[in-house]
Write a structure and sequence with these properties.
This protein is an alpha/beta fold. Helix content is 37%, strand content 20%. A hairpin with a 4-residue loop joins strand 2 and strand 3.
Length: 500
C-alpha cells in the first residue's frame, strides 16, 4: 500500500508540475534538461558529438550528427522521467539554443550541403575585413556597436559564396545550429531568433535583414525569418515525435545563442549585473538599459524581450584545455591538488586556438605559460588562474564600455560547477560570484520554453532560476592577484596582444 500511495503521489505531482524542455547544442555535444515550474531540474541527458578533423584555424562539424544525438538524448531523458513518475505529456514546451555564429547551408529538404562552419572557424577573416570596409556595413556597425569578425555567420556566408559557389548554389536555407534542430522538430527550417541572427547581420533596431545584403546575389532569399526568443514558433511533428519520443504537438519556442541561454540560466536580472558562461570558451554578458558598443568591435549587444540589452563578448579562452589535456581525469582531485598552489606566479594564457576575440582582439594571439609549469598539477593550477585573469580583463573592458557595474557576477557553464575554480575567480576578480542551481545553457533554453507559460522571459527567469552558492572574494588573496594581474597584462602587451 505504501508503494502504491507513493506512486500515486508522484503521478499527481507530475500532473501538477509542468516540465519545460531545454535543448543545448554545444560544441562538444547535445545536452537536455527537463525543468519544473518550481525551478527544479527534474532530469538531464547528454550525448557527445565529434568535430571533424580540419586544418589549423578551422572548425567543422557534420550537421547530420546533431539530430540523431538529440533523438538519443531525448529518449534517455524520457526514460529517466518515466522512472520518476513523469510521462511525456508532462512536457509543456521546448526550446533550443546553439553555438553563436555557426553557419549551416541546407538544401530544400533540410540536409546540409557541406559541413557546418562552427562559431570559432577562422577562415573568413578576409571576408570580415571586406564587409567592414563597406559603407553600409559601417553604418550598421556604428548603430549596433560592433564590427564583423570571422566568428560572425555573415563573414562565413560571404566566404561560402566566394570560395565554394557550388555549395552555395545547392543551398536553399542559410541556417544557424539551433535552427537545424528546430527544423527537425517542427518541419520548419526557415525560422530563427534574433539572438542567433545577430552575427548574421540582422538589424536589431529596425528588426529586419538589411536591404544592402542584396549586393550578394541569392543571400537575402536564403535567410530565415526572425522572431523574439521565447515566442512559440511551431510544434513537434508526428515524424519528430516518432524519432524522439516527445509528444506530437509539443509547442516549440524560439531559442537563443548558447551564450544568451547561459545568461538566462544565471539569475542576473539588474542593470550592471554580469554573467560569464565558462564552458569550452568564456562568454561574457552584462545587462544594460541602452544599446552600447566599442569602436574596435570588441563587444556586441544581444537583445532581450522587454527592452534590455546584453553587451558582451566571447573569448576563445575557456575550459577547452581541460578536455584536451585532462580528459577523463578526476577533476575534483585535480582541483584539490591545485588549490594549494594558488595564487601561482606562473602566468598562463590557456588559449588553444589561433587568435583572440575578447577581451582583446588579436589574430596572432597564442597560448603561453611563463615560466613553463614544473608538473601537471602546476599546469592545471596555472591554467585555472589564467582563465580567471582573462575573465577579470573582460569585466574591466565591459566596465569601461557599458558603465560601472555593481560588482556581481552570475556564473554558468560547466566550469562553474568547480568550487575551487569559482572561489579563485572571485578572489582574482575581486567580485562576488553567484552560481545558480542549474548553471547550464540547456536550463536557459528551458527558461525560454517557459516564457509564454509565465507571461514573459523575465517572469520565467524569476520563477525558475535559484541561486545555489555564492563566493565572496578573499581580499587578502585579491591583493596578491592584483599584482599577478598586472604582470599578466604586461606579458600580453609585451607579446603585442594587448594594446597599451
Amino acid at each position: 500500500r505504501g508503494l502504491a500511495l507513493d506512486a500515486i503521489l508522484r503521478y499527481l505531482d507530475s500532473m501538477a508540475n509542468a516540465l519545460f524542455l531545454g535543448i543545448d547544442m554545444g560544441s562538444q555535444g547535445v545536452r537536455l534538461v527537463a525543468a519544473g515550474e518550481d525551478g527544479a531540474a527534474v532530469s538531464w541527458a547528454s550525448v557527445p558529438v565529434q568535430s571533424l578533423a580540419t586544418a589549423p584555424g578551422t572548425h567543422e562539424q557534420d550537421p547530420a550528427a546533431w539530430w540523431p544525438a538529440v533523438c538519443r538524448a531525448s529518449r534517455m531523458l524520457l526514460d529517466d522521467l518515466k522512472s520518476k513518475g513523469y510521462g511525456p505529456e508532462a512536457l509543456a514546451a521546448a526550446a533550443v539554443d546553439g553555438t553563436s555564429g555557426t553557419l549551416v547551408a541546407l538544401d530544400a529538404a533540410g540536409r546540409a550541403v557541406r559541413p557546418a562552419l562552427m562559431y570559432n572557424d577562422g577562415r573568413s577573416g578576409t571576408e570580415a575585413k571586406a564587409i567592414n570596409a563597406l559603407p553600409e556595413a559601417a553604418a550598421l556597425c556604428a548603430k549596433l556597436g560592433y564590427r564583423f569578425a570571422s566568428s560572425f555567420a555573415l563573414a562565413k556566408i560571404v566566404w561560402l559564396l566566394g570560395q565554394e559557389p557550388e555549395s552555395f548554389d545547392r543551398t536553399a536555407r542559410l541556417a544557424h545550429q539551433a535552427d537545424v534542430v528546430v527544423g527537425h522538430l517542427t518541419g520548419d527550417f526557415a525560422v530563427t531568433d534574433y539572438s542567433n541572427a545577430l552575427k548574421t547581420g540582422y538589424d536589431l533596431v529596425e528588426r529586419r535583414w538589411p536591404a544592402w545584403f542584396a549586393r550578394w546575389p541569392g543571400v537575402l532569399e536564403r535567410l530565415p525569418r526572425v522572431t523574439a526568443p521565447g515566442t512559440v514558433i511551431g510544434q513537434v511533428t508526428r515524424e519528430a515525435a516518432a524519432e524522439t519520443g516527445l509528444p506530437a504537438g509539443l509547442p516549440v519556442a524560439a531559442g537563443a545563442s548558447d551564450g544568451t541561454a547561459g545568461f538566462l540560466a544565471s539569475g542576473a536580472s539588474q542593470p550592471g549585473d554580469y554573467n560569464t558562461t565558462l564552458g569550452t570558451t568564456l562568454v561574457f554578458k552584462g545587462i544594460s538599459t541602452a544599446l552600447c558598443g566599442h569602436p574596435d568591435g570588441l563587444i556586441y549587444c544581444h537583445k532581450l524581450p522587454g527592452g534590455r540589452w546584453l553587451p558582451g563578448g566571447a573569448s576563445n579562452t575557456g575550459g577547452e584545455w581541460i578536455a584536451r589535456d585532462f580528459a577523463g581525469e578526476d577533476l575534483q582531485a585535480l582541483d584539490a591538488a591545485a588549490a594549494g598552489l594558488l595564487p601561482t606566479p606562473v602566468l598562463a594564457y590557456p588559449n588553444l586556438r589561433e587568435g583572440e576575440r575578447f577581451p582583446f582582439f588579436s589574430p596572432e594571439a597564442r597560448g603561453f605559460s611563463v615560466p613553463e609549469p614544473t608538473d601537471r598539477i602546476a599546469r592545471f593550477a596555472a591554467n585555472l588562474q589564467g582563465t580567471a585573469l582573462v575573465e577579470r580583463l573582460g569585466y574591466d573592458r565591459l566596465d569601461g564600455i557599458a558603465g560601472a557595474s555593481g560588482g556581481t557576477v552570475y556564473s554558468t557553464g560547466g566550469g562553474s560547477r568547480s568550487d575551487v575554480w569559482s572561489q579563485l575567480r572571485a578572489d582574482a576578480t575581486g567580485r562576488v560570484l553567484h552560481r545558480p542551481a542549474c548553471p547550464e545553457s540547456a536550463f536557459g533554453s528551458a527558461v525560454l520554453a517557459a516564457a509564454e507559460h509565465f507571461g514573459g522571459v523575465s517572469q520565467a527567469i524569476a520563477a525558475l532560476v535559484r541561486i545555489e552558492a555564492s563566493f565572496a572574494p578573499d581580499l587578502t588573496k585579491t591583493a596578491r592577484y592584483d599584482e599577478i594581474y598586472g604582470w599578466f597584462c604586461e606579458e600580453l602587451r609585451r607579446r603585442g596582444y594587448l594594446s597599451a
